[in-house]
Amino acid sequence: MSSNSSSGSSSPKMITHHVSEVVESNITLLDLFREGASEKLILQRLIVAGLLPTHSDDRKKHMTALATHFQKLDRQLRREFMFDRVTGLLLLFPTCLLHVVESSRDVLLSVLRNMQHLVESDLLEGSKVVLLIHDPLRRIFQQWSYKMMYVEQRPHDADADDEEENTDSLVSTVLEALEKLDEHLQESNGDVLPGTVLDEVQHLCVPPEVIHQLLERDMLLSAEEHLELYDSPIVLDLDAGMGPLSLSDNII
Question: What dihedral do alpha carbons 116, 118, 122, 125 form, nearest 10°?
Answer without folding.
Answer: -60
